[in-house]
Amino acid sequence: MLMSGMVMNVESQLRFDYYASTCPKLGQIVRREVMNAIKAETRMAASLLRLHFHDCFVNGCDGSLLLDGSDSEKLARPNLNSARGFEVVDSIKTAVEAQCSGVVSCADILTLASRDFVLLSGGPTWKVPLGRRDGLVANLSAANGLPGPFDNLTLIVSKFAAVGLDDISDVVSLSGGHTIGQARCATFSNRLVNFSQTGAPDPTMESNLVSELQTLCPLTGDGNVTTAFDKGSTDLFDNHYFQNLVNNRGILSSDQVLFSGNEPATAAARSLVQIYSVNQFRFFGDFVRSMIRMGNISPITGSDGEIRKNCRVVN
Question: Which domains occur in the chain, in start order?
């Protein structure tokens, strides 16, 4: 609960109007660049949302994931060969710097861009509290402990709680970000054959989906081949992801355990999955609340940190 209190305390240090005088056109600039990125590649919406998630869970929302170098968080197992969209952040930063040099942090740019990518994919919008500054160091070891596709629900809940997201609705609604995006075969092929040494596929995956994914991801195939998280509604931010979970069509085991597990938190998670599957308005509301809470995880404010000139390196 201490970390949760920290999230609430720092929220007051961030303001909706933080750049009102120093960069009044910030929102327009970010929205324009996000629109251009989506036009070039629809999948980029999910990629930027994932970057924001992975940034905030390590060192707080400080842009540390964006840093290059031998200790970069990009080299962590959950990010290596899968985290993408850094060039889009670079493009947004360049456009912002042209209008407001040395004013807007990379951490705030990533937070704003994530909101706009959700909105332009058909999802909700919300006011983003701003005023984050950029961190000076990456944390590769912490990035290796990000919530992962093979985690059980108990572990996922504990990882969320460790950063102050201690409500089960945070876990379930933010998992709903998988309503857009792609999963690599390497992240779910364990469910297709000899699951947990049973000699059979994961029984919580619908049989037709098992067959489809076995064809896409043969045992000797390329683990980097991808498929949509949310089959039937690939690029639209909606509640269809939860409908898939109810029908045992979740791609990752860490998704399907929200509905089909038997752990202490399963009953509460399953109830929310069922609610979200039929009530998109409720999902959107909880998702917005949790995104704001996530964006308030231990931000650097005041005179600490810096405003990076280049999101990939410290000044």
Answer: 2-146 (1.10.520.10), 153-291 (1.10.420.10)
